[in-house]
Amino acid sequence: MIPFSPPRIDQKIIDEVVAALQSGWITTGPRTKKFEKQIAEYTGVEKVLCLNSATAGLEIMLRWFGVKEGDEVILPAYTYSATANVVIHCGAKPVLVDVNANDFNISLQRIADAINSKTKVIMPVDIGGLPCDYESIMNLAKGSSALFKASNDVQQKLGRILVLSDTAHSIGALYNGKKVGGDVDASVFSFHAVKNLTTAEGGSVCLNLPAPLNNEEIYQALNIKALHGQNKDALAKMQKGSWEYDVVEAGYKWNMPDILAAIGLVELERYDSETLPRRKEIFDQYLVNFSKKDWAQLPVYKTGNSESSYHLFLLRIKNISEQQRNKIIQLISEKDVSVNVHFKPLPLLSFYKSLGYKMEDYPIAFDNYSREISLPVYFNLTGEQVDFVSNTVIESVEKVLAEK
């Protein structure tokens, strides 16, 4: 049995988690704060806030910016539901746009077409770990400032559309030679169990907002919002004589505990030296194995100015239907190989259908989805297993193609 994406849990991680348990401090504390600082150093941003999920990271930024009913947020139709759900939570409207045909990322032209006076945020998504064209997206946001209508002090200070990047897949990816995280106003990583770098559950917000906005002040405000609106966290309250606190807003419960940060500290320490190189090796091996198959559309994971984090190997099969793709997956699974599909576009989901979104409005997103199969990529996957997966996929594809 070859699983799809198990986490790397070895003795080093176990020891660090045990150390956290034995420290007597298991909720948000010194390990979480250390993890935040190390991510900030890794990505080159001023401040990072760690939370219990990337979803919380996206929502906290929308709420900080004051996104509300009557506002619109532009995002790709091709993404996981969390990207759109947080917009719904705020009472705003997700404006779905189509994606590129060569990769899975949001179309710049479709963003430009969708911007209007109600647009408050653009949320690009790095599908599979390949960075979007951040520079062009930022230029679209800046170039549309005449259309932007600020409805609060924060929006007035920024003076334009906020670019909030869903970088859930792309920690360690490169854009213009730098680590992803500081390319737009704010970027949100996921540390869910299946991600390249995991804390079991968790996420972080990298703050990169321009003056006159102050990232340190925003970080402090977000900490309050993430912990019930309380102006002191547990660590601060434990200082001698510092028990007293206030609640200054009706906040949320989104903080990351130290037990989870302990996993992340080990993961980050060896990320560039062990995790990313191994994932790249697996991608390269798949590339060799499938490159001679004329039915294989190989994923883009390197361009002139970007390099993927090697999160998902998004194989597309040329000239097949969704039903044929599903039959191929069934044949693969019968050989005890776990594969996946990333993602079911939002207009195919019952909730978003009920809101009036129609799949036929996003033909490229549907075409990409209908032919896509995600292959296993994880640190402990051996070269022999990569070959076994490849051969299983090839046999299954060619069996279905032969039935045409």
Q: How would you describe what is shown here?
A:
With 404 residues, the protein is of the alpha/beta class. The protein has two domains: 11-268, Aspartate Aminotransferase, domain 2 (3-Layer(aba) Sandwich), CATH 3.40.640.10; 272-402, Aspartate Aminotransferase, domain 1, CATH 3.90.1150.10. The protein has 15 helices and 13 strands. It has helices spanning 11-22, 30-43, 54-65, 81-89, 108-114, 134-143, 153-158, 215-225, 234-237, 258-269, 271-290, 322-334, 350-354, 363-370, 383-402; strands spanning 47-51, 72-76, 93-97, 119-122, 162-166, 174-175, 178-179, 186-190, 203-207, 296-297, 306-307, 313-317, 372-375. The strands form three sheets. It has a seven-stranded mixed β-sheet with strand order 1-9-8-5-4-2-3, sandwiched between helices. A three-stranded antiparallel β-sheet has the order 7-6-11, with no helix packed on it. Strand 6 (174-175) and strand 7 (178-179) form a beta hairpin. Helix 11 (271-290) runs parallel beside helix 15. The model has no long low-confidence stretch (mean pLDDT 97).
